[in-house]
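[INFO] parsing input record for Cytochrome bc1 complex Rieske iron-sulfur subunit
[DEBUG] input buffer:
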Amino acid sequence: MAHEEDALEHERASWKPSAGLAVAVPDPVQNPGLPPHRHRVTDQDPAAMTRAVRTVYTLFYLSLAGSIWAVAAYMLFPIESGRIIDIRHNNLFIGLGIGLALLAIGLGAIHWSKAIMSDKEFIEPRHATRGRDTTREAAVQAFRDANEESGFGRRTAIRGSLIAALVASIVPGITLFRGLAPHNSEAKPMAGDPVALLSHTMWKEGERLAHDPSGEPIRAADLTLGSAVHVIPESLADLSHHDGYLEEKAKAIVLLMRLLPEQLVEEEDRKDWSYDGIVAYSKVCTHVGCPVALYEQQTHHLLCPCHQSQFDVERGAAVIFGPAARPLPQLPITVDAEGYLVARSDFTEPVGPSFWERH
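[DEBUG] output buffer:
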């Protein structure tokens, strides 16, 4: 059987068509060419072209107005005032201005390309690029042709408005960097100064730790092993929203946990910062300030849900994963004569993300 198959395969390989027999060869695929060009309304009607040009540069000038409004909103609603209404208006109107600026540029560029620029189809033959003089001349000529077809060089209204809109669109972003500069005010010496704002919170010696949001003080004996409690200063309840309640709470929020005392690995100068295995750390993530509110009871890890930074509670909230650059600040605590947990002092370092002036 194997011999017969080999013979058959050899016969197939050696077969050639006899004289007089035609072998059909398929024709190559023919180039269908370009479809007939469809003229646009603006190609046939000069009035329509004029309207299209007017629409494009109007959109570009609208973008310019949006950029100017974003800068004006930054000045009209200063976040340094500390008022919630100003902060909200600042974010809202700056965002609307920047959004309008970018949207108008995009719409203007799209309308320009669809209604004004040349839309004739053409074939560009491919060849090896060798960097010869003729190649350079052809490249220059291609730019000239593109300029002529787009009308960028001829249509000064579009060119001027586009350049003005593009330049102005950068200004709001540059203006926002002003908020990073230190700012001092006679009325509010701490306003805008991150060193002063973030180095001091409502925690002070003897300040009781209270449940968030009820404000009920916490006894050390009431904390069970493995528990995690959201904590605020007891005196925070005395503040109203007009007195900076939200701002002070945002800096002073704390997460309180209880472990076995022997599980804590503490530095010598911090051995009295905990009480019977109870430790308190700032809830403000040191990455970008999100609330660190997830506690893994078995591993004793704190997790920031925003960017997955993880902190080891047993080892001073040291960073073990994620983009956070430093441990969570620890609040020194003890108990008072009635058994309530109290702060020994304020945080010994600024809370929240890192910033330029932080040492």
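[INFO] The two ends are 89 Å apart (CA to CA).
[INFO] shutting down worker
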